[in-house]
Amino acid sequence: MAVSPRSHRRRVLLALAGAAALAAGVAAAARRRAGRVGDGAGDGAGPVRHGGRAARNARLALLGARTGGAYAAHRARRVFADAGRRQQLDTEFELRTAEQIADALGHMKGALMKLGQMASYLDQGLPEHVRAALADLQHDAPPMSAELAAGVLRDELGRGPDELFAEWDPVPIASASIGQVHRAITLDGRAVAVKVQYPGVAEAVAADLDNAGLIFAGLGQLFPGLDHRTLVAELRERLVEELDYSIEAANQQEFARYYADHPCIHVPAVVPALSTRRVLTTELSDGVRWDELLTWSQAEKDLAAETLYRFAFGSLYRLRAFNGDPHPGNYLFHPGGRVTFLDFGLVKHFTQTELDDFGEMIRHMVLEHDPAAFRATIERIGLLPPGLPVTDHEVVDYLGHFYEFVREAGPYTISPEYASETVRRFFDTTGPYAVMQKAANLPSSFVIIQRINLGLYALFGELHATANWRGIAEELWPFVDGPPSSPMGERIEEWRRRHHPQGASAKLSG
After folding, report:
1. 477 within a domain of the structure (yes/no)
2. Which of 230, 206, 207, 226 is nearest to 218 (CA)?
3. Of 136, 225, 244, 483, which sits most exposed with the smallest number of CB within 10 A?
């Protein structure tokens, strides 16, 4: 059933407004509770002066909003300033204390910022000005001061940046949800990127996750089949892991070792001696960002998409790991389909049993097209409850969309409309699939992997990416073990024979 773009945009915006209203209600309730239990409360102009989670949430809501508005005004003033004045304005706005950072995290960073990052590329149906505003969350956030960043290095590595590095750029080249990145040159002459975690981020993310539990509980009213506790537990575990850069370093080293000398996939090397729980130092990489890729030829965009697809599914089936943050800011692009992958903080490792479940769904939906067997599998896994008053073919009609571009061999273009329909299959409960949508659940093994459906395919839609996706998938599915289906696949086959000869028969390739 077709849904008009206007109607779809209205539903998306209503959903966003509902989430915002719920969050506002939570903050208001926190302020009311804070006013009852403390020794003083804010009146909207000053901070709440007592401890406790509710009070802290209220303080972050108030001061965080003020920080966010001030930063927007700051960026506006920068446009009309000369270079010297811009530097002065930037210095004036730097976050210089952990408390200031905590306040800003309550509005612009932390766990909830990731929802904004995702929304900015999630759905082509969003109005352009809304997507543009959300896109600022991908790259643009107030930086902490050079002195504060240096203090984190001293706390973690025992020395300041001038002692640790031959050269150190105090101006960050990027800022993200939990840290900012600086350029540096090591004492032995290597160019590196140094990610420094914001002080106080752990507290801010914890508060975000507490509020996320309430927000997802509210979603349970719209989707009664959703076990929001499992969902929140999985998100909490992954995001808490992301706070520990030593885990991210181990993840990145695992991917870098496997993809060493790969013809299309590049993972920057980690510098372990300069990495800790709150500092991560890696090889500095070049390449162009997403916005520039969009100006390249369609052939180059198709090659980039093929590499992104091979990385996502090759890593899933060969490393049993999925890098769960596929947003545009985590990629650097090079001609010929070569892509540098950044940020390995949100990585999900899967058991073989979980991968076998994914494979069983693919066999029944794509290879055998057995509706009854497919339905039995998803009921056993817990995606749908048994006994729904729908036919097997209706189940396949609902979920078959997610497999559409691999159902048949040959070129297939993933369009913005396909990406938007993917989102609707999850969230639009007014259409013909409402019974299944409201009853559907996300077991823990499916929570992070949905970033493919709700993120990666949106990027492919923006690229209008065209490929023989079925052929590429059969290369990557270990239960098919197909031959190379593209020139890129042939180059990868040669790489695999050199670097992973022990896995030749099992197709252990990216």
Report:
1. yes
2. 226
3. 483
Using the structure block, give the residue that is written with the tokens 């101006």: 171
Query: What would the two tokens of residue 143 be?
Result: 């930086």
Distance CA 453, CA 36 (A): 44
Instruction: Return the bridge partners of 174, or none.
Output: 181
Tokens representing residue 182 in the block: 């600086």
Q: What does pTM read for this prediction?
A: 0.75
What's at 103, amino acid-wise?
A: D
Of 48-52, 302-306, 376-380, 466-470, the range with the lowest mean pLDDT is 48-52
DSSP 408: S
Tell me the one-letter amino acid at 60: L
**CA dist., res. 102 & res. 14, Å (int):** 29
Structural domain of 322: 288-510
Q: Dihedral (C-alpha) 63, 242, 328, 340: value to the nearest 10 degrees?
A: 140
Tokens representing 396?
């396949």
Q: Based on the number of CB atoms within 10 Å of its own CB, is 276 exposed (0-12), middle (13-18) or buried (19 or more)?
A: buried
**Sign of dihedral through CA atoms 462, 465, 470, 473?**
negative
Question: 54-78: per-residue pLDDT in tens?
Answer: 443 433 333 333 444 454 555 555 5
CA 39 to chain centroid:
40
Per the structure, how many domains does the chain have? 2
Among 142, 159, 180, give the residue marking a domain's end: 142
In terms of Cα–Cα distance, which of 162, 499, 510 is closest to 310?
A: 510
Q: Is the dihedral of CA 436, 438, 439, 445 positive or negative?
A: positive
Token pair in block for residue 374: 């497919």
Query: Which phi and psi (to 5°) does residue 160 adopt?
Result: -80, 170
Do residues 124 and 462 touch, judged by C-beta distance below 8 A? yes
User: Among 107, 142, 177, where does a domain finish?
Assistant: 142
Residue 510: inside a domain, yes or no?
A: yes
pLDDT digits (tens, 9 = 90+) for 479-510: 998 999 999 999 999 999 998 876 543 433 33
Map residue 104 onto helix, strand or coil.
helix
Residue 366 domain flag: yes
C-alpha 379/C-alpha 382 separation (Å) is 5
Strand partners, 186: 165
Angle at 435 between CA 432 and CA 437, to 5 degrees: 90
CA dihedral 323, 458, 357, 445 (to 10 degrees): 50
Closest CA to 365 of 398, 407, 394: 407
CA dihedral 351, 238, 149, 73 (to 10 degrees): 140
Examine residue 333 and state whether it is found in any structural domain, yes or no.
Answer: yes
Give the contacts of 290 (CB within 8 A, at least 6 positions apart): 328, 329, 331, 333, 459
Q: Which of 60, 454, 508 minimizes the C-alpha distance to 314?
A: 508
